[in-house]
Input
Amino acid sequence: QVQPVESGGGLVQPGGSLRLSCTASGIVFGGNTMGWYRQAPGKQRELVAQIFASGATFHATSVKGRFTISRDNAKNTLYLQMNSLKPEDTAVYYCKPIGYSGSFNWGQGTAVTVSS
Output
């Protein structure tokens, strides 16, 4: 059963940067499409970015040009580099394999708060 562990969140001022990390056992990140999701208070969870097995990436319009998804296959770790953060980026961030047929549980996520 795959249950990711997300880390790297925190409190940051508007315009600041954070890098989130995600690790998990039982799945090879490089062989799967992996995504970063976020859930803001009172809102539904939404897809922020995804990276395909090929290495191609997709970023939601709201974060394009500010966030970058990447992975380190040797470390089996997924990253989300977040720059030029805005208050509306405040949310709990999660990683998840997309289209994965095995057993999966959401991790606890990592909280990002953007505030002055």
About this structure: The first strand starts at residue 5 and ends at 7.
